[in-house]
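ok, trying the design again with the full structure, not the truncated one.
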């Protein structure tokens, strides 16, 4: 369908085009970047680029970057330093190398990247990935290309459709972006600036992509969005759908046996979504619901627009609908103004919820966000101490959750061969890798096992 867009315009055919071209993509940051990297690789396949894992063989090197914390953004520049040498070495052998920076650093810094790292030929923001093939052609013709507008055309409409063979080679689980961007403007966060305002993909587009994934052998689909539960659209009957209604429809897609979604905002958990957790066995009992902090004062300063108590009551409702559900979350320690008492409130909230898994970070001031301008920044050693204490607590909870699975019988989706002969590895409903006897089934099967013991972050099983 959409692959015609790329094919209509012939690639500027240089003399070297007899040799198949190779693209190396390195992905930083969140799952949406993983999804985007695949879509970019698909768009480039239509241009004759095949993917490679060996950067030194690549005619096109693409870094798909993340801007969420300072460290994430800085990694890109150190990688570009290495790429500069590589490009020079390839140049000596008469090989051209185009270097592109995509993703959230591209969107945030634009042509500043080329000023700081002249090795870069091409900068492209997440809203314009459908223009990547043209941008690469321009770069090959010697132009420095910067594409960072919030495009008005629908990039998803214009990106080539996923091809079956390509999906097959990727395995039995897949991401599917349904929503992108954010209007919530938490005061610490760059995402509203890098991903633009909140948009939802239409129902028909999502269903078509899910169907293609199902046909290609994908068994588990994770719906993605920066605020995935803010997704909304018009159902086939003309009524307004939220993510809950969409999930009820997606369980009917042939082949798809399991659904997940991430990341959710507490303010967008509505009754239909909670009902989906009660009524849909295919919706896995696992919910990533970041709260960031446990102190109402800090939550307010972060512009999260809910209290700690709102969050706890919401989890009560979710657990009432499905007692099996495991919680996951994100936390920031050392937001400006955070006192010991505020941090204690975060620890209390964590103890009260009991997380199966969680991510925690030291606050990183991001240029252009209100948080960076706030008074009372917390000293680095204080952030370190708080992060350590929080991670110790979350680590204990994660270990306790793993232990609580021992003796349970559960369905496991087999994903890949194991490291030891005779073993295969699958995924529990709660996302842990499960080691399974290879006689139990094949990749793509959902097999029933009993958990016998825990590993470091995994589970061991016996067939039942
Ligand atoms: N859209 C998601 C989160 C996106 S960013 C949500 O609303 O939850 C993923 C996580 O990175 C956030 O949940 C937050 O915990 C962390 N994060 C974002 N900005 C940060 C910053 N400036 N410093 C430290 N951590 C940050
Ligand atoms: Fe960032 Fe907040 Fe939007 Fe999440 S909800 S992406 S943390 S601004
Ligand atoms: Fe990073 Fe952008 Fe994702 S900043 S976390 S790659 S949305």
């Amino acid at each position: 369908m959409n692959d015609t867009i790329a094919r209509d315009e012939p690639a500027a055919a240089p003399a070297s085009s007899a040799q198949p071209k190779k693209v190396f993509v390195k992905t930083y940051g969140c799952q949406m970047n993983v999804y985007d990297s695949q879509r970019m690789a698909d768009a480039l396949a239509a241009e004759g680029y095949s993917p490679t894992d060996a950067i030194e063989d690549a005619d096109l090197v693409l870094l798909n970057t993340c801007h969420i914390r300072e460290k994430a953004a800085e990694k890109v520049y150190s990688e570009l330093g290495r790429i500069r040498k590589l490009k020079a070495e390839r140049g000596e052998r008469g090989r051209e190398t185009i270097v592109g920076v995509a993703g959230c650093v591209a969107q945030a810094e634009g042509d500043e990247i080329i000023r700081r790292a002249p090795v870069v030929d091409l900068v492209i923001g997440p809203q314009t990935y459908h223009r990547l093939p043209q941008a690469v052609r321009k770069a090959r013709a010697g132009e420095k290309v910067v594409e960072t507008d919030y495009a008005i055309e629908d990039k998803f409409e214009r990106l080539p459709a996923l091809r079956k063979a390509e999906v097959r080679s990727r395995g039995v689980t897949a991401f599917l972006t349904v929503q992108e961007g954010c209007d919530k403007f938490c005061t610490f966060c760059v995402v509203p600036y890098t991903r633009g305002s909140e948009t939802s993909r239409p129902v028909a587009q999502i269903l078509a992509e899910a169907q293609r994934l199902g046909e290609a052998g994908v068994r588990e689909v994770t719906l993605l969005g920066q605020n995935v539960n803010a997704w909304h659209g018009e159902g086939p009957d003309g009524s307004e759908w939220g993510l809950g209604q969409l999930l009820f429809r997606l369980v009917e897609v042939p082949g798809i046996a399991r659904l997940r979604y991430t990341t959710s905002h507490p303010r967008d958990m509505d009754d239909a979504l909670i009902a989906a957790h009660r009524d849909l066995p295919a919706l896995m009992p696992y919910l990533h619901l970041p709260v960031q902090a446990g102190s109402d004062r800090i939550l307010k300063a972060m512009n999260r627009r809910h209290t700690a108590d709102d969050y706890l009551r919401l989890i009560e409702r979710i657990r009432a609908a499905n007692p099996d559900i495991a919680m996951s979350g994100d936390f920031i320690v050392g937001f400006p103004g955070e006192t010991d008492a505020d941090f204690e409130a975060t620890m209390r909230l964590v103890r009260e919820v009991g997380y199966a898994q969680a991510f925690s970070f030291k606050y990183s001031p991001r240029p252009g966000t209100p948080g960076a301008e706030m008074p009372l920044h917390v000293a680095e050693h204080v952030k370190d101490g708080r992060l350590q204490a929080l991670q110790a607590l979350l680590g204990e909870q994660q270990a306790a959750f793993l232990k609580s699975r021992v003796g349970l019988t559960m369905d496991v989706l087999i994903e890949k061969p194991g490291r030891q002969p005779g073993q295969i590895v699958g995924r529990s409903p709660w996302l842990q890798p499960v080691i399974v006897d290879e006689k139990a089934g094949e990749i793509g099967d959902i097999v029933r096992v009993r958990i016998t013991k825990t590993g470091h972050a995994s589970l061991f099983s016996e067939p039942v």
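Keeping the full-length input from now on. Residues 182, 184-186, 189, 191-192, 226-227, 265 surround iron/sulfur cluster (ligand 2) (CB under 6 Å).
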